[in-house]
Every structure is written in structure tokens, then in C-alpha cells.
Amino acid sequence: MTDRTERAVPEGSHGRDGEGREGMPVRPSMTDRTERVEPRGGHGRDGEGREGMPVRPSMTDRTDRTGRTDQPLRVLVVDDQQLVREGLTALLELTDGVVVVGAAGDGRQALDLVADRKPDVVLMDLRMPVLDGIAATAEVRDRFPEVAVVVLTTYADDESIAGALAAGARGYLTKDAGRAEIGMALRAAVAGHSMFDPVISARLAAALTRSAPPPARDRLPDGLTQREAEVLGLIAQGRTNAEIAVALFVAETTVKTHTNNAFAKIGARNRTEAAGYAIRHRLG
Predict the structure, then answer these.
(1) 171 exposed, middle or buried (CB, 10 Å; 0-12, 13-18, 19+)?
(2) Which residues does 138 contact at the CB level (< 8 Å), separation at least 6?
């Protein structure tokens, strides 16, 4: 018994090679367990949060390309048929990022609501009592130039299309359009772009390729050059500057120069007005 001796290990200390009593691994105490703690709300490596998980941005971090916080698209619905108004309102309220701020039954009511509700875009019917859609569109664009107009109608004849575009509409859809297509057209209009459904695009293309020859260079309206007339014709087809550059075999910066010069000569404020001008004057 006197020969049996045991090596005592001080309590809480380690033996050989990190082992505890009788060679058993020693479990670190709570005071030894350290953890890397990220600041609350902070990011870890390369924009990651705790344990490498991506951090979801807060609402205050979500901004659009202009630097403004995302806001829902404010839409005013205008149609003389109550059933259609209510249906469109219900449809748009199912669309993410869209809020319907009002509905009007004619162009005059629409103007009053634009002044009162301040929408971003108006979804406009054409054939209405009191004040039709073309006249209402022209007044909206004149009195409230920051408000875009998209036409939604059953009519796809040349006169209606040309009249709406000349009045300043930035989009033209028929009532066969679905919710997604309407939503895209509304957003495009607010961004300053034009969008037409396939039926309208085909009508525009046909109008520009009819048998009547284009005006001779010395008879082009408003002092336009031949190249400026070509650019306006392609704008009326809904082409972007990049697409026009490819079609004319020139640089995109050259297209922008021709576009700016043409807009100044014809008094167009945007591509929709330029398209209407091109259709009226058969440029192409």
C-alpha cells in the first residue's frame, strides 16, 4: 500500500499534452469558452453576418437607382365602365409594389383626381363621356408633366394609337393584356420608357412601312436631316438607342446626338411624343 502512489494533478490544471487526470481530456470551463461576437446589426467577413450567413438589408437600405427609398407605384384607374374600373382596381392591388390611389369614370374626373391624389401614372381608357381619354391625356401631360399615362383600351386602330401617342401617352395596351404586362407597362412609363403590346407594335410597324414613299430630303418637316428622320422612325418602332445604333451601323453616342437634335427641332419632350410625330409624318 505504501508503494502505491498516485500522481496528483492540481484541480483545474491539465496533464500531459492537454490531458487531465489519468490522461482523460479536460473539458474547458465556461470561463474558457470564448466566442467571436459580431456587433449587433454588423456584418462579418465579406458582408456576411454571424457564422457566415448573408445579412438581409433593412428597409432603410433598399433604395432604387436614383437613391430614393423604394415606394409603391401610385396608380389612378380611369374607365367609364364601373365593372371594368373595379376589376382593374382589384387586379392591380394584387400586383407587388402597386397601390391604386383612385378610380375615375371620365377624363374630367381623372384630372380632378390627378390634382388631388398625385399618382405616378394614370391607366387611361380612350372612349369616355365628358372628356375622352386622348383629350384627358393631353391635359394630364400639360398640367402634370411628372405624371405618366398608359392607355388601356379595346381600340387598336391607327387613329386611336396616333392620337394617344401624340397626346403624350407613354404606353398603349389593349384590354387583352394581363396583370404582369400592365404592371410592366406602368413601371416602364414612370421610368420614362414606352411599352406597347404586340398588337400595337405590329400596327406601328405597318404604319411605318406602307407603300407611300418617305418625304424627300428637301421636304422633311421642321428642318430634320435624313438621319434624324430615320432615328425618329426607329424610335416609333419602340427601339432603344442601342438597337438603333446597330440598325444604322453607328455608335450609340451618335444616335443620342441625332435624337437630341431631332427632339429640339420637333419640340418633343420624350420618346412617346417623338413616336407620335414620326407616325403622323410617316418617317422611317
Answers:
(1) buried
(2) 167, 168
Sheet with 171-174: strands ordered across: 98-104, 73-78, 121-124, 148-153, 171-174, 195-196
Torsion of CA 230, 198, 144, 86, to 10 degrees: 170
The answer, yes or no, to whether residue 199 has pLDDT greater than 50, is: yes
pTM value > 0.85: no
Q: What is the CA radius of gyration of the chain?
A: 33
Q: β-pairing, 121-124 with 171-174?
A: unpaired
Cβ-contact 229, 283 below 8 angstroms: yes
Mean model confidence pLDDT for the chain: 79
Cα end-to-end span (Å), the chain: 114
Q: Would you place residue 8 in the very low, low, confident or very high pLDDT band (cuts 50, 70, 90)?
A: very low
The set of cell numbers assigned to 111 is 384630372
Q: For residue 123, which phi and psi values (nearest 5 degrees)? A: -95, 105
* Residue 50 neighbours by CB under 8 Å, 6+ apart: 38, 44
Q: Do residues 220 and 261 make contact, with C-beta atoms less than 8 angstroms apart?
A: no
In the DSSP assignment, the letter for residue 48 is B
Q: How far apart are CA 55 and CA 42, in angstroms?
A: 9
| Residue 27, pLDDT score | 53
List the grid coordinates of 89.
382596381
Residues linked to residue 19 through DSSP beta bridges, in sequence order: 25
Q: How many CB atoms lie within 10 A of CB 227?
A: 16
**How far is 214 from 2, CA to CA, in rounded Å?**
121
Alpha-carbon distance 106 to 109, whole Å? 6
DSSP string, 100-121: EEEEESSHHHHHHHHHHH--SE
Averaged pLDDT for residues 1-28: 47
Distance CA 123, CA 143 (A): 17
